[in-house]
Design goal:
Flavoprotein-like_sf, 6 helices, flavoprotein, FMN, ISF_SsuE-like, 174 residues, five-stranded parallel sheet, alpha/beta, Flavodoxin family protein
């Protein structure tokens, strides 16, 4: 299976630790590519709608090659830290630009990893999960998992062996 991971964090901290644990489990049987939005040149969606009449976004930036990778994947893993009770702007930017080829993202297998500085019973995780649930319903996604983790210090999640084993197991069982 071809898996594309969209890393919504610009830091090398807990979100990356979660991604790496998932990759450790999934890499044996799957082809994995990581998209790092903070390293791309992607303009925000203008809502012009021209993309619906052509083969993609009209912006001459990294949008179309990025969306090509996502559309070609069998599975998409969205990973994000919590910023102001929502997903990071880096991840949201890529999701917004998926509009240009939304129908090509139908029926994908999808997973989410959310890492925040509040306990996982906080409303912030529920808000992010609901946003992904709406996308999943609209695009007929097969939501394989939604995992949320609480970690404040930059290396806290990596030290949580239960969480790392859980993420590795999710990847291994795909």
């Amino acid at each position: 299976m071809k898996i594309v991971i969209i890393n919504g964090s610009a830091r090398k901290g807990n979100t990356l630790a979660a991604i790496n644990a998932f990759i450790k489990g999934a890499s044996e049987k799957n082809k994995i590519e990581i998209i790092e939005p903070d390293k791309l040149n992607i303009a925000p969606c203008k809502g012009c709608g021209v993309c619906q009449c052509s083969k993609g976004c009209v912006d001459k930036d990294d949008t179309n090659p990025t969306i090509d990778k996502i559309a070609a994947a069998d599975m998409i893993l969205f990973a994000t830290p919590v910023y102001w009770w929502g997903m990071s702007a880096q991840l949201k930017l890529v999701i917004d630009k998926c509009y240009c080829r939304g129908l090509q993202l139908k029926n994908k297998k999808v997973g989410t990893i959310v890492v925040g500085g509040s306990p996982v019973d906080s409303i912030q995780y529920e808000l992010i999960d609901k946003q992904f649930d709406c996308m999943a319903k609209y695009l007929s996604w097969d939501m394989l998992f939604n995992k949320s983790y609480y970690a404040t210090a930059r290396d806290e999640l990596e030290k949580n062996k239960d969480s790392m084993n859980e993420l590795e197991g999710i990847g291994k069982n795909l």
